[in-house]
Amino acid sequence: MKQLRRVREILGWRTGLPVAALVAAVLAVGVAVASSTVPGHPVPGMTPPDWSKLQVGPYPSAPIDYDPLYDGAADAYRMESRRMLTYLVSPDEIDPDVRYLDGARTLDTSDANFADPGDIFAADAPFPKAWQSIAQQNQLISGAYVSRNNDSIRHRKYIALAILRFPTEQKAQAAVDGFFGALSGPRIHPIPLDGIDARASSTTEVKGQVFAVHGVYAIVGHAMVQQADALAERLRAMARAQLDKMADLKPTPLEDIPDLPTNPDNIMGITLPNRFGTGDSDPSGGLGQSGEIYSAAGALHFERDGVAARRAFAAAGVDLVARNAATVYRTRDLAAAFALQTALTTLGRDDDEFPNPPGITDSQCVQLDEPEPIRNYTYLCAVVYGRYVAVIGAVADFGGAVPASFVQRVAAQYSMLVKSG
Fold first, then answer.
1. What is the rounded distance in angstroms from the CA atom of residue 62 to the CA atom of residue 60?
2. What stretches of 246-350 show up as alpha helix (H) in DSSP?
3. How confident is the model at residue 338 (pLDDT cuts 50, 70, 90)?
4. Residue 8 neighbours by CB distance under 10 Å
5. Whole domain around residue 141: which residue ranges?
6. What's the confidence (pLDDT) of residue 62?
7. I want to staple 383 with a disulfide (CB 3.0 to 4.6 A). Which of 45, 136, 412, 414 is the partner?
8. pLDDT above 70: residue 28
9. Does the pLDDT at position 32 exceed 80?
10. Domain check: are 357 and 378 in the same one?
């Protein structure tokens, strides 16, 4: 694509610049106009929609011509970050109790990822402000981050892990040395980790952090355990698991990053675009970004219950996921799609069912008791067509009401899938 050729030219002469100095991203997504006819054929097991009742509002109701505009190297680096999520260990793989999502994101050197405690403008930043200059000085290229907890206040457990890519092994080591050194103080004590090439320290008796280097990658982890004598083993297990999972991770040469797939099998063309307001946006992939693809392993990091989602993905044969104003999952077949729909809308203890949008029988909708952690969605609706499942969410209006656009967006996304043939 013309835009990617431009990015390649930028990367050719800006490779040595800090990521923070690179041009910000702009994505342009084309919108297709709804048609009065519906191509495709009903598949056994699916209930035909009542088209007279579907309300799509201003949203596209047919596949779009997806052609993202990548206007700088920073956009390309986010593509590499999303690829890296495939190789990031999920906390529930270390401890099945630590399964509930806190946050997941790609990383760069922007203020959104580094903040002091109490900073209301970056309240969910994963790293301390003191680390930002260290990341910039060592030219952080890309990164991936996830954190989960055990959903308990009295017996809290927590794991966060990140992998960060730097230009050279020396830069990665310098970054780790800087991060570790920035945490020094009277309350910080080193923890020996015998048998593994990593360093760790404790913040309190039950909180600590671990650091390691793997080629051009830095590994950063943080943990909270219930018993002080379990902290060292938890940090050791985190480092070991992450190093093992990165055995096959090779950095994409910078000049080849623009060649990473942006729309395999046109999955972005059948995913509701993000261009109709902040309520449709997804902050997980970078401010202002629109349209992201993930492997199944990468997409798992964004699911609310890591254990349940891992099991459901495997059973349904999920092999590709697109995130935009909706999330579209590609499964093995129709039966697998219905099974995944059920898994993704299983009610929690205090969740409630929500009425299906008019005209769509094959949908399952939920009103969450606690908003989803990343997009802050209170309302979720999952629709099925063929081997695809689409989940559309909405942030509650002031007072907790469902926004009027929610039903329209669900109908539009469902229509896009049906009209894809």
1. 6
2. 296-299, 306-316, 334-344
3. very high
4. 18
5. 73-254
6. 97
7. 414
8. no
9. no
10. yes
Strand partners for 143 = 107, 164
Q: Which two tokens stand for residue 21?
A: 């100095």
187 and 305 housed in the same domain: no
Residues in the chain, how many?
A: 421
Find residue 323's DSSP bridge partners. Answer: 292, 327
Sole residue written with tokens 């997806």 = 66
User: In 289-415, where do the E strands start and end?
Assistant: 292-294, 320-323, 327-330, 352-354, 363-367, 379-385, 388-394
Distance between CA atoms of 107 and 82, rounded to whole angstroms? 9
Residue 304 · residue 351 · CB < 8 Å: no
Mean pLDDT over 138-148 rounds to 98
- The pLDDT tens digits for 226-260 are 998 999 999 999 999 999 999 999 999 999 998 99
Can you point out the beta strands (E) in 42-109? 100-107
119 with 250, same domain? yes
Q: How far apart, in whole angstroms, are the C-alpha atoms of residue 224 and residue 411?
A: 43
Q: Exposure string (b/e) for 23-36, b if CB count within 10 Å is 16 or more?
A: eebebebeebeeee
Nearest C-alpha neighbor of 287 from the set 6, 75, 19: 75
Domain identity same for 61 and 113: no
b/e per residue 363-401 (b: at least 16 CB within 10 A): bbbbbbeeebbbbebbbbbbbbbbbbbbbbbbbbeeeee
User: What pLDDT score does 3 carry?
Assistant: 52
99 vs 75 pLDDT, higher one: 99
Residues 6+ apart with CB under 8 A from 212: 176, 196, 197, 198, 199, 218, 219, 239, 242, 243
Kindly give, in sequence order, each residue whose CB lies less than 8 Å from that of residue 294, ignoring residues fewer than 6 positions away: 82, 85, 86, 320, 321, 322, 323
What is the phi-psi region of residue 359: left when phi exceeds 0, alpha when psi lies from -120 to 50, beta otherwise? left
Q: Is residue 4 part of a domain?
A: no
Q: Quick one: pLDDT band at residue 15, thresholds 50, 70, 90?
A: very low
Same domain, 64 and 104: no
Q: Report pLDDT for 288.
A: 38
Task: Determine which helix (DSSP H) or strand (DSSP E) holds 223, and give its type and residue range.
Answer: strand 217-224
CB-CB neighbours of 179 under 10 Å: 21
Please check whether residue 8 lies inside any domain of the structure. no
Dihedral angle of Cα 388, 29, 293, 321, to the nearest 10 degrees: -10
Identify any residues that bridge with 367 across adjacent strands, giving them in sequence order.
Answer: 352, 379
| pLDDT tier for residue 117 given thresholds of 50, 70 and 90 | confident
Span 392-397, average pLDDT:
95
Q: Is 327 exposed, middle or buried (0-12, 13-18, 19+ CB in 10 A)?
A: buried
